TrEMBL record, chain A:
SMART domains: AAA. It comes from Malonomonas rubra DSM 5091. Signal peptide: none annotated. InterPro entries: AAA+_ATPase, ABC_SmlMolc_Importer, ABC_transporter-like_ATP-bd, ABC_transporter-like_CS, Mo/tungstate-bd_C_term_dom, P-loop_NTPase. It comes from the Bacteria. This is Molybdate transport system ATP-binding protein. Keywords: ATP-binding, Nucleotide-binding, Transport. GO terms for molecular function: ATP binding; ATP hydrolysis activity. Gene3D superfamilies: 2.40.50.100, P-loop containing nucleotide triphosphate hydrolases. Pfam families: ABC_tran. Residues 1-236 form the ABC transporter domain.
TrEMBL record, chain B:
It comes from the Bacteria. GO terms for cellular component: plasma membrane. Belongs to the binding-protein-dependent transport system permease family. The complex is composed of two ATP-binding proteins (CysA), two transmembrane proteins (CysT and CysW) and a solute-binding protein (CysP). Residues 51-257 form the ABC transmembrane type-1 domain. The keyword Transmembrane helix applies. One of its GO terms (molecular function) is ABC-type sulfate transporter activity. It is found in: Cell membrane. This is Molybdate transport system permease protein. SUPFAM superfamilies: MetI-like. It comes from Malonomonas rubra DSM 5091. The chain crosses the membrane at residues 52-77, 89-111, 123-147, 195-215, 235-257. It is a multi-pass membrane protein. Keywords: Membrane, Sulfate transport, Transmembrane, Transmembrane helix, Transport.
Length: 362, 263
């Protein structure tokens, strides 16, 4: 079973790419904002660009080592890469595209046809075999591109935003298809995306890249519960509030920059700069402040209401901005709040997670 | 309706002038040659010989031009920065050289007393005033044009296609042969026809380097020149014939012109 271990440095236009990453067999989602260096990282792994320093180890094989002056050319790395724009060969039909890698390896014509046929069946695209690739739909092109790569038995798969160019209906289908196909393969797979839905779908292993660095690696659940940065929090849709932890009458309290005060469990937290995260679906909305257990609350004006099927996202703003996600039934029970109305956002102290951070960015 | 602006009228007028400039002489030439006159040309053995020399030399030059021009053009399209600019200037040098000067230069390089003349004579090769000289002249003049246009073709290819081929295990040579060339194949066919069309029209360089020997180095262009002095009527006929050949080649180029998607 091969595992990818890499440590790479490469100067990009605005910053240095300095990524350390371990990819085990199975799908790892590489998530990051546009321009974070995700595609650059894939190109370095594939040998299409040369890192300034670092190593790439794939299973037993060393693909790149700056110190030992090892730099395997792309054609010897046995890495399968599906480009964002797929780069299907326009002069070959679907079968020709899928069989290309085998032909280059001088695999006999009959063995090649068998393998292509086998892949076409496995990926359920036999009906496309003789089609011209320029006439395929987006989803079909995606499937052919993956089939073409799989035909050469890669030991590492790199998929650059495989669903970004598809319409929403095809996107869901391709995601399910990818999941099925890739789970059977069980080779290390790095799937680049900047789509939150995609991360939620391939939720098991996620690596987050920001400004050329891997800032967090973990499950989607961990990203939700413990976002390592503001980007991660905003990306997964978690409320992220900057402030500081203060001591008041022997008890710790979180004071947001906007001036609101919140209670939390304060595990392993010391007074000083910190941020608070709270999940939107842990926040309830009330017209009147309810009595009872000690809860955090913020009275604010509704800025934005977005109805997402059976959920409603409501943005509330006063000292701080909080996004609450409630059920549509709850929304109707509240009398369909509209922007401009004032509401209480309420959440339990134990739903708030506080973590110390470095000096506050201004 | 909107009144046409003065500037638009100006553009229209100059376009019309240019069109007339091109079409009027063409028309005059075609009117001067009757179809029966054209057919009669084929009864002259000298005309047939000139036609043969023209076609043979162009067809012989074609593979040489491709095998030198294509790899160079591909290499150049992979270069960047200062190296590329210097190489492009080198490529432009023969393009701006007047054909007569090119003929003399070739003679000085490959002639009996030229730079390589003795070397070639030593192995029993005498190039000037042979069909080989016609071919060499065509290669010398046309290859830079051909390479220049191929660089444009190669530059337009999506680099990701080649990268995808490499990642599928193709060596750079396999990638060039199985991806790059097939992707630009229509463009290359068109360039091949263009080479023929250009080669057929050469005059100055051939008459100086290869001479005007009927049946050996006299191409159609040279035959026109000779005929003009003795039998102008035949010269007009030959000119019309050459024009028709060029028109056919031009039409072919445009039928083949790259329409393939370069994705």
């Amino acid at each position: 079973m091969s595992i990818l271990v890499c440590r790479l440095n490469y100067p990009l236009a605005n910053y240095q790419l300095a990524a350390e990453l371990t990819v085990a067999p199975g799908i790892t989602v590489l998530l990051g904002p546009n321009g974070a260096g995700k595609t650059s990282l894939l190109r370095l792994l594939a040998g299409l660009n040369q890192p300034a320093s670092g190593q790439i180890q794939l299973g037993e094989r060393c693909l790149f080592d700056a110190e030992k002056r090892i730099d395997l050319p792309s054609e010897k790395r046995r890495i399968g890469m599906v480009f964002q724009d797929l780069a299907l060969f326009p002069h070959l039909d679907v079968s020709g595209n899928i069989g290309f890698g085998l032909k280059m390896r001088r695999v006999s014509s009959s063995a090649r046809q068998n393998r292509v046929q086998q892949l076409l069946e496995k990926l359920a695209i036999e009906h496309l075999a003789k089609r011209n690739v320029t006439t395929l739909s987006g989803g079909e092109r995606q499937k052919v591109a993956l089939a073409r790569t799989l035909a050469t038995d890669p030991q590492l798969l790199l998929l650059d935003e495989p669903t970004a160019a598809l319409d929403p209906a095809a996107r869901g289908e391709i995601r399910r298809w990818l999941q099925t196909v890739l789970t059977q393969l069980n080779i290390p797979t790095l799937l680049v995306t900047h789509d939150a839905e995609e991360v939620a779908y391939f939720r098991k292993r996620v690596a987050v890249m920001e400004q050329g660095k891997i800032v967090q690696q973990g499950s989607f659940h961990q990203l939700l519960r413990e976002p390592a940065s503001e980007f991660v929090a905003r990306f997964v849709g978690v409320n992220y509030i900057l402030g500081e932890v203060c001591e008041q009458a022997g008890k710790l309290i979180f004071c947001s920059r906007g001036g609101a005060k919140f209670l939390a469990p304060f595990k392993q937290v010391i007074p000083g700069a910190a941020f608070m995260t709270v999940l939107p679906w842990d926040i309830a909305l009330y017209r009147e402040l309810p009595d009872g257990s000690p809860r955090n609350h913020l009275y604010g004006e509704i800025r934005d209401v977005v109805i997402l099927g059976d959920r409603v996202r409501i943005t509330l703003e006063k000292e701080d901005k909080l996004v609450a996600e409630i059920s549509t039934r709850g929304y109707l029970a509240l009398g369909e709040p509209q922007p401009g109305e004032n509401f209480w956002a309420v959440f339990k102290a134990r739903e708030a997670r506080i973590e110390n951070c470095e000096e506050l960015p201004c | 309706m909107k009144r046409p602006r003065l500037f638009t009228l100006l553009l229209l007028a100059s376009g019309l002038a240019l069109g007339t400039l091109i079409l009027l002489p063409v028309l005059a030439l075609l009117l001067a040659a009757s179809p029966s006159g054209l057919l009669q040309l084929f009864n002259h053995p000298q005309v047939l010989q000139a036609l043969w020399v023209t076609l043979l030399s162009s067809l012989l030059a074609l593979p040489v031009i491709f095998s030198i021009g294509l790899p160079s053009a591909y290499g150049l399209s992979r270069c960047n920065g200062r190296i590329r600019r210097s190489l492009e200037i080198l490529l432009e040098l023969p393009m701006v050289m007047p054909p007569v000067v090119a003929g003399l230069a070739l003679l000085l390089a490959f002639g009996r007393r030229g730079l390589f003349g003795e070397l070639l004579a030593g192995i029993g090769l005498r190039i000037p005033f042979t069909l080989g000289a016609v071919v060499l002249a065509i290669v010398f003049v046309i290859t830079p044009f051909f390479a220049r246009r191929c660089v444009v073709l190669f530059d337009a290819i999506d680099k990701k296609l080649e990268e995808a081929a490499l990642l599928l295990g193709a060596t750079p040579l396999q990638t060039f042969w199985h991806v790059t060339l097939p992707v630009v194949r229509r463009g290359l066919f068109a360039e091949g026809v263009m080479v023929l069309a250009q080669g057929i029209g050469l005059f100055g360089v051939i008459i100086l380097f290869a001479g005007n020997l009927p049946g050996r180095t006299q191409t159609l262009s040279l035959a026109i020149y000779s005929a003009f002095e003795s039998d102008p009527q035949q010269a007009f006929g030959l000119a019309a014939l050459l024009l028709l050949i060029s028109l056919v080649l031009l039409a072919t180029v445009h039928l083949l012109a790259p329409r393939e998607s370069l994705r």
